[in-house]
Amino acid sequence: MSASKTVFVLVHGGWHNRSTWNRVTPLLEAGGFEAMTLDLPGAGVHATAPASLDRVPFDPVAFATEPSPSAGVTQDQRTQAVVALVKEAASRGRVVLVGHSAGGMTISAVAEQVPTLLHAVVYLAGFMVPTGMTLLEMLRHETLSSALAPRLFVGNPAIIGATRIHPGSTDHAYRSLLKASFYHDVPEADFTHAASQLHCDESNAGALAPSAVTQDRFGTVPRHYIRCTQDCAIPLAGQDHMMAAMDATIGGKTTPHTLESSHSPFLSQPAALARILAGIPSLARRVTPAQQVPT
Known about the structure:
Layout: E1 6-11, H1 25-30, E2 34-37, H2 60-65, H3 75-90, E3 94-100, H4 103-113, E4 118-124, H5 135-139, H6 157-160, E5 162-164, H7 172-182, H8 188-196, E6 201-203, H9 204-208, E7 223-228, H10 236-250, E8 255-259, H11 265-268, H12 270-283, H13 289-292
Parallel strand pairs: 1-2, 1-3, 3-4, 4-7, 7-8
Antiparallel strand pairs: 5-6
Helix pairs in contact: 3-4
């Protein structure tokens, strides 16, 4: 391992794919870092759309009830995919693991499994959930009650086996809600392209898998949180609540950073996001067990 080189492993959020980071990775590389991305299982090249999506004419009832082809994707599959990438990255330098939105659940699980391979974990408006809690439980917390994203959900997740959205919808109200939820500060052309990259289904497994982080493993990895103050998918109050809840249960202190952005600063403010990420390696210091214990 090269002690002087930092490798960023970047994990996308729900319904997104590795193209999330296309504007950020060149900026990190220009700064002398390395950046690695992947499509999580069930996402990007691994995503399979429900057959009803392309039916002509479109049948909204069929789309809202068809079982998801992604229902079998598990959180462990996603965790292991990122663990494998982290191991590859660790052979090149010190690893900073970054997770956006629901990708926060995956980076927490990875940090619990391979804490010694990580220099830091970074949550970008991400779900940072205390031990024993699920993403769904956190989403129902009062601090996230103003989140717009749940209004995008189509059908009953318990029936279709996934949380489904319709990113290709031509309904003006739905597309306006999609933009408001994730991309309200992104130019229209960029929004159109970003929406075209989204997949429909997120397996329920990720939302229902309880966080299993511990003080002795996850708690030893320096953690950072990039707050997005104009976020309508994970409101700022919810972001701050998750930091406080994790600090209270795991101990130590989550280092906050702030962007005046929507849920998608990788599109609206890639340079500002890259600057924050570039500064994190010099801030991260591993935590000893004595420092973890909540007071």
